[in-house]
Amino acid sequence: MLTMSDAIIELDELRRTFIVRARTGGLRRVAREVHAVDGISARIDAGEAVGYIGANGAGKSTTIKMLTGILVPSGGRVRTCGYEPVPQRRTLAREIGVVFGQRSQLWWDLPLRESFDILAAIHRLPAARARPRIEQLIEGLELQAFLSTPVRQLSLGERMRGEVAAALVHRPRLLILDEPTIGLDMISKERLRQFLITERAEEGTTLLLTTHDMSDIERLCERVLVVDHGKLAYDGTLRGLSRRVALQRVLVVDLAEPQPGLEVPSAVNVGTELNGARQSFSFAPDQTTAAMVLAEVSAVAEVRDLTLTEPAIEDIVRTLYHQSIES
Amino acid sequence: MAELVSPPTTDLVTKRESYAILLASRLRAQMTYRSSFWINTVNSFFTGVLEFVETYVLLTNTPTLGGLNFAQASLVFGLANLGWSIADLIFGQTDTIPRYIREGKLEAFLIRPMPLLAQMITADFQLRRVGRAFLGLLIAVIVLFWVHLDFNAATIYLLITTPLYGAAIYGALFVLAGGLQFWIVDGSEFTNSFVYGGSYAGHLPGSALLLPLRVLFTFVFPVTATAYVPCLIMLGMDGPSWLPAWLGWLPPVFAGWTWLLAAVVWRRGVRHYTGAGG
Amino acid sequence: MIVRRYLLLASAEFRRQSTYRLALAAGISANTVFGFIRFSVFYAALVGAGGTIAGYDRAQASTYVWLGQGLLAGIGLLGTHEVSERVQTGEIAIDLSRPIDLQLSYWARDFGRAALMIPARGLLPVIIGAVTTGLAFSSSLWAIPLGLISLALAVSISFLLRYGVNLISLWTIDVQGYTSLYMLLMSLLSGFYVPVHIFPGWLQVIATASPFPSMFQSPIDVMSGRVVGAAALRVVGVQLVWTIVLAAATRLMLWRGSSRLVVQGG
Hints:
By secondary structure, chain A is α/β, with parallel strands linked by helices. In chain A, 34% of the residues lie in helices and 30% in strands. Chain A contains ten helices and 13 strands. Chain A is globular. Chain B is an all-alpha fold. Chain B has one domain.
């Protein structure tokens, strides 16, 4: 009814440029353009669960601000739930729920329960609709034990569950979670993920999630968008991504003598640290082995120590970047 | 834009009900911390007393201040204070935009379906400021028994409407300050010059202000209209140069002008924030 | 060298404060508007009283107002919460374990802040005052060195009072009430709103028995030449006594309070 399609999010060549003024030593200031989001196009349909990942400063938060109407795009087009976010911000607000992991939208001096009632009033929900929904969320997120505790006294995990409940009181069609699990312990993370799975099954909520934790994506999302320097580096299924990069391992070697970036035949050098005394090599384990890569490195430099790591999101992004250059 | 449609809002509660629920919840919450509520209320009461002390001390040294004796100057102070404290009660938090921005509260406000200003007023309502309003009322009532007023229809009309238009004018200055602070986050103290400076000037006899200030605080930030000029009519006095007593009938015009200015600046301020990304 | 450490603390604070340029400009503009309003009303009172009140003529009134506007940020009339916040978060224990004296280190930092704020926020209002409404300075040669000493003591007294109020947090969690009480008494009795000299008798007695005039009225009196010669020396002497008394009192507070801290904190 809202639009002809069931698209919840439509991005078309979305751009956002910031002017950053940096002081250069004296009184002079130099203005520099930063392309935080640099032409992103994507479409997310109703009911999808999408992970939105990238390194710090890659443009994730800027995109979310434009999706929610907090920030005007510098170019391109964005539609959220069929609305233009900035001009129709308040109408859109009825359709979306947002959790900013780093900042709270609860009332710090009030008992947790009170925040839900206030939000229901702000969304102008009749009591007959709000009350059962709040009870349902309290049960689903196991909030009973600290409902009457002022928010500022809650632990991070408790508060975050409260934040998620607060974002869902008005049954939004789209739930946006910005780093919801950052700083949480394993049990809190798992409890939150479990709830989100159930909630989506019951309500059909569309989910957009940014995270630094790949296991959030593995548990919650079928689809992944990878953003790098403001551009989409990957858009596809998680399985597709893991075929390209997630299976990539990284061999980190400490060298006896610092070396300029080493190149070896069966792996890609994805970074040097400590002036070249530590170098990282990414390789696909189905094509070569760690021993082979190590042998190749040892042939050109003396290796003192090594570690083998599963890739972090930053490494996934870097590998995608190198692949795109090579192809 | 014609294709843009809104979802049905028929089954929602009315806006007025929603504001009432919000306010009630804020009041309940603040009354639960009773002792700190009373300390704050008493404090805000005495802050007002302190400002009155200046008028009092000066008038122990001189028979008249700007042509007004102590009782008459107190009437100006009392009416201005009542208007100011009502404005402070309702709009007081709008001139702390930089704090909202730094604490990330503004973004939380922006993703909710209620106007930003309405949220600031209701969701962050500070009941303790009521102490100040009580002082204003107290002084105004005491002064009424003390100063010699001719209680005709005009006087009664002015006595009732002056604090209300005063509250409107001071409220507009708060909102104007908030709007400007979207641009000058680090320099927000600048707005103190007309918000708190305006309050200071508005509590004084306008005739006591140097001419440039008198013009600034009447025709740009019309705080002399919040008490002094209506008092001229009530007291049957002539105004000083640039401030004729008949201006005392025009607070609605001054209030309209300041609200127009405040609304434009506030809207542009919010737009600036969403344009620049904070 | 020990003195060097405190000088480093002072200069670090000086540089930290100097980064807030826009805030500085905004503060000066607000100060200036308030200066004009304060002068207006004081001058209107002078006119009403027939020219002078308690020795204040137009030029003296203008000097009192503009020196006050210039100095209020430097002297630090606005409160600080840093020490009480550190007590509440427990970080004070870290401060106390450092090989540097707590009182002296905060004192040094406050001097660093004042050394920036007095010229940065003070100069322009005083110049504006001199150009627009006129200033009267002491003709005595002693007024400049004595004025600087008086100012340094005023900064110290202001610091020690604020520090003392902050230290109350060693005994109670809620210091906000005490801070507000201090702000009320200070702004009334320091001579910030109106000069102490024009207070009605009873209020003047209360004010002169308190340390508050020594942190604001006194340096203005010495610099403007309202008090000269032996009288000026006596004013500075009173400031010195208050500085010593408050320094000793706050040391005692910390000593008593920190032993509580050890017992409680465990």
